[in-house]
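Note to self: keep these together.
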Amino acid sequence: MSRSLRIDLRDPAVLRGLIALVALAMAAWLQWQGGTTLTVAADEWLRDRFIQLQASNEPERRVLVVDIDESSVAQIAWPWPRARIADLVELALADGARGVALDILMEKPADAEGDMRLAMLASHGPLVLAQMFDYLHADAPLAGGQLVGGMPGNNPALPAQGYLANHPGLAGARYAGNIGVLPDADGTLRRLPVFTNYQARVYPTLALALMQCCGGATATLPLRAVERVPYARSWAAYDVVKAADLLAGRMPPGMARGKLVLIGSSSLSIGDRVSTPLGASSAGLLVHASMLTSLLDRQQGLAPAPLPGKAIAFLFVLAVVLLTSYTLPRMSAAANALLLGTSALLWLTVAWVLAPRDPDFAPAAPLLCCLYLLAVAVPFQWELAQRRSRQLLGTLRQYVAGEVVDELLRSDLKDPLAPRRLEVTTLVADMQGYTSQVESLSLEEASDLTTQFLECLTRPVLAQRGTLDKYTGDGLVAFWGAPLPNAEHADLALDAAARILHEVAQFSALRVASGKPALRVRIGIESGVAMAGDYGTAARSIYTAVGDSVNTAARLEQAARDYPHDVIVGEGTAALAKRHRLLLLGERQLRGKGRPTRVYTLESGE
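Structure:
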């Protein structure tokens, strides 16, 4: 039983199956195990391109950004007095803002009036302060200022190692949001820690804290510890007012009404710049604004409906593997390469749709699987095809003269072995009295006689560029004019017949000299239209010719026993022969023919 279960790794079908299984295993591993650093980088690069192309400029009317930009810093040198920051908050609230979040850390006290005003706003108004957590292990963890808020709980949260918070004078704030970030290995910020765990308390990110401050129903949102920032809108989509314009009263009235306001800086001199998929140097405010937009979309049912990207990606690879398993043995390497390229383009379209709907699937995985199939499966099948072609050519050379095979390979025929209607000359040769010749011989002697006699027939056929159709025990069938047309097919067949007579005569003379019976060969030759090509089934095929002229040649070979001549030629060959003199023997009624057939033989001088 174990022998029947043994797998032959040399079997092409087994190797094809293994290649397919590796592609599927690769697809599953890349989707559910995360892959390697290189494949993860490919996934993120592709997602970044999608984000850049899909980022909408549609105005975001629910969020207002107050930007302490370069022009504002030029008018009022940084760091600003806390009173100026308090002015920004009060002006936004006075204009009707639902709530304000400060993307500014105030670790140390400053002007007393400004700190007092900010403390009152944070403890009694809809103001969210910022605090920052550090997620990197360090010998001396950060611990500056006094943390605010945080809820005990077992919710999934990213553990922090240290923190920087506002000074104790602001510790009465009701809400504070985390502005700490954890960029990817390439330095690009693609995810935010929505929940952070520090000393058994869980702290929200700035955007979530702002929504909680303003009475937003966030408890039911399916949020994880770390969320991918969708960056669904470009920076141009947000209503942005310069901080200096807000302080100077140049902001249009009602611009903040009903909106959530983020106050922070895009100024290079302040240094709140990060790398995001939307730009190598983006304002940190953009990250929090994008997360706030995402949370609002989820809360209001506007977020793209989720889709199981991992399962869809795996099923796509499965479909490609099944398709290529069918096409690889049946199509050319170029066609299969084109098919895989088309599959990759199709997947890019699918991934384009899936990317905003599943933050976790690996969009590059199916592309890598297609590349694997292109690099492994296509060359493997091409090599199998080449090996089979070499085997077929080797087999063909046993039946067709070598120069004919070479000419066949040089021909422009798309499928030179496909059945075609051609004018051919067929030669059928047989040993007369074979049974009486071998009945007194041992098995080995009978085998040697048959082999040597067939060599006397075969050599002249191949020498005259004939195609050996088949052996018939003690004889053969050959034809000229296929697989390549040849205007001299009749004369070449007659040349081969004359040479066969000569070789059989020599072989017979040797046998007679050794006291053995003489041999005689019977040959029938006829020309006409026949269907010549590769016939058979998937199990076995043969290159042969079928048609009335082929049958007639066989009948002429049988008729030779009634004539004192070894070669009987039909009227079709006689009409086409140009280099041979033929002797008319009269007419003969052949089996299966409706009328008598004129028969000829080679003149004795040939």
